[in-house]
Amino acid sequence: MAPTRPEPVLSVVVPMFNEEAVLPLFARRLRVVLDGLGEAYEVVAVDDGSTDGTPAGLAALRVGWPGLRVVRLRRNSGHQAALVAGVLRAHGRYVVSIDADLQDPPETIGEMLRRARADDLDIVYGVRDDRSTDSPFKRWTAGAYYRLMRRLVGKQVPAQAGDFRLLSRAAVEALRELPERSPVLRLVVPWLGFPSGAVTYRRQERPAGRTKYPLTRMVGLAAESVTSFSAAPLRFATWLGLAGVVVCGLLVVLAVAAWLAGATVTGWPSLYVAILFLGAVQLLCLGLLGEYVARIYTAVQGRPAYFVATDTADERHRPAEPAPVEVVEDTDDPAPVAGDAATVLTDARR
């Protein structure tokens, strides 16, 4: 029987989607870091329905890397869903999540683990204090996102902290208790209120492959973050409606004053502007309301955010099938079987 691996102290969760180009370099750097820690570990690579050579690359890496565990989702469910799937299935006392693009350096993991133990922290954030490798537009949009999240959610959301973080087992179990279908972890984790700290690092350039977060997905993440964690847009729609009422009231006063002064003329420009303004306000409010109704509809459906197709950890713990039993027949003196019970009793009476 092959020796069983000890329960991991550290689990490293890596969501992946079409990372064939960067996978060998990422695996090489990550393994050097983890082997040097002197701790039992597992790497939970979550294949989010990749369509390139990522599954084959992970299978090849597992041959010589016993600490690598591959969780494959049945379809592409999105980065946040793959991240949640890996975190909730990890076995370690500490769980670190990191992307495979090497923009977040794996060498920071050891510092995170030491900080968590030294200060008895349940959460350690990786904070990017230097984003000079990003484009000016990327830095501006990222800064705007974090300013908005801190204003809506609170100051507990660390600025410039993405999905590179360490969680204790207690924090992971708290996440497991949440009823949300697809939580945005960069907002939910600070909301838990566990003791937390941070380590800083310089964000690096992606060495290979293409980014999985273009502008459209960044906007989608921002919308998902806002609508999943705050009702502020609905309040904004209310205040916008009140502002429209005030503006229209002023226009009515001006119109009455002009009529009393006998200065009424054909006022199609003011009428045109008023109709456009009211129509825009109404459509905006309906759109915001529709976003929340859509989230309610999705929650009522109760569909899981992801489906796990395979997990190599299940293969290691699967019990061995019993060996087939060979039946040997003795033709000289056959033993009676259950079906011949009546014949045996008849022979005994004789």
Automatic annotation (TrEMBL):
Primary site of residence: membrane
Which Pfam families does the protein's record reference?
Glycos_transf_2
| CDD domains with a match to the protein in the record | DPM1_like_bac
Stored InterPro entries: Glyco_trans_2-like, Glycosyltransferase_2, Nucleotide-diphossugar_trans
SUPFAM superfamilies associated with the record = Nucleotide-diphospho-sugar transferases
GO CC annotations on file: plasma membrane
Kindly give the membrane topology term recorded for this protein: Multi-pass membrane protein
Alphabetically, the GO molecular function entries are: glycosyltransferase activity
Q: Enumerate the residue ranges of region (Disordered).
A: 314-338
Q: Which domain of life is it from?
A: Bacteria
Q: Where are the transmembrane segments?
A: 236-259, 271-294
Q: Which positions fall inside the Glycosyltransferase 2-like domain?
A: 11-175
Keywords recorded for this protein, A-Z = Glycosyltransferase, Membrane, Transferase, Transmembrane, Transmembrane helix
Is-annotated flag, keyword Transmembrane? yes
Give the UniProt subcellular location, in the record's own words. Answer: Membrane
The record's similarity note reads: Belongs to the glycosyltransferase 2 family.
Q: Which PANTHER family match?
A: PROPHAGE BACTOPRENOL GLUCOSYL TRANSFERASE HOMOLOG, UNDECAPRENYL-PHOSPHATE 4-DEOXY-4-FORMAMIDO-L-ARABINOSE TRANSFERASE-RELATED
Q: What is this protein called?
A: Dolichol-phosphate mannosyltransferase
